[in-house]
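Q: Predict the assembly, please.
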Amino acid sequence: MMITRWHAVLLLLVMMAAVFVADALSSAPLDPYRAPPLFALGSGKAPSGAHCSAVVGTDK
Amino acid sequence: MISSLKAAPLLASRSFRISLCATSLGIISIAVAANAGPRFGLLLLIGGGMGATLEGLGFGFAGPWRRLILARNPSGFLAQILSMALVALIAFPLLEGHPAELTGAHAPVGFAMVAGAYVFGICMQLLLGCGSGTLVNAGSGNLVAILALPFFAIGSFLGSFHLSWWTSLGSLPVITVSGTNGLLLTLAGLGVLGGLALLIAEKPKLSVPPRLWCAALIIAALALLHLVVAGQPWGVVYGLGLWAAKGVIAVGADVSSSSFWSAPAHQTRLSSSILTDVTSLTNLGLMAGAAFVTFCRGGFTASQQTLTPTIWVSAVVAGFLLGYSSRLAFGCNVGAFFSGITTGSLHGWIWFLCAFAGSFAGITIRNRLGMGR
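A: Predicted assembly structure:
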């Protein structure tokens, strides 16, 4: 059987489904009412996301 | 029967496919915004735009470096430089004026960081994809990238797990430049890189295709929008490590022995949905955007390349090392190179020098493995 990109994307979807299941098992329910404002700029709040440049123990 | 007959020619229409994909991404983003918050929906949309641009206009990192080294063709590299200069031009004043709300991709230079960037450079040429490239290739249905992706994530997770040991080998404090002087220094550095690329270029290859200029502008605009929305620059690797950490926890493992993952900030991410994690959302968007472009082009029916055992093993090993090394290097081509330099971090410049040197080695290794130049 010829393997096409459709087959590969189906495999990717299965993998991502597994990530979402794992996420659902360990995460608190979503709450849009406690979400940060749309734009960080002008919000008066420090950024709360994590980044690849994060040094051990920080969330910069 | 009648509806399927009608649907077939409709799906064959390119404009219908584009409308379908744009609508789908819009609906998914609105659903995320409604359930997680508007910022997160917008970040998914930004990631989607980035993925569509990278795939649709052929903008990337690993490929242009490869063409610069092998064919002395600087076009893709010059587009990167232009995009970064545009981001720096606006990001520097924003960061200077809003230090409480916005942060740069700042990290220390150290032994592990240098080695990590070098190894990343090797592996990005073995895999023909970097951080963003692996996600975009996966979204477009490239089997090698899809195989490498979980190992990239596992490598990123384990790299984070061991990060404190690696950084204890020795590192400088975080060194950054800021303000007008910092911006001028950064633009001068980018100018030198562009000038060097032009200097080594073969004269017939000096022209940059208009699509790459367009891509550079769009990526710059989206990267700046990302900074304004998220309060931090574009990144890739953290999200992948987080996905693997979630998987590890789901099978009952304990990550509390890691000083990285047990830190309060990362504990918060572990206990929150990936739909509220900045890098996870843009990563998902990158894959979705690339997938939609491939669908619009009708590219999913294309057959996969013949995969030799060497390619399979390389995908697994290079994928793992890409993830692991990018954590030691405090980012990949996006988080360290693109975002580090454009927000004034010295580590971005060191990352580039080491990863570019690694790319030379990677191209040589790839050739020796018979994987093609």
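Chain A touches chain B through 52 residues (CB under 8 Å). The mean pLDDT of chain A is 88.
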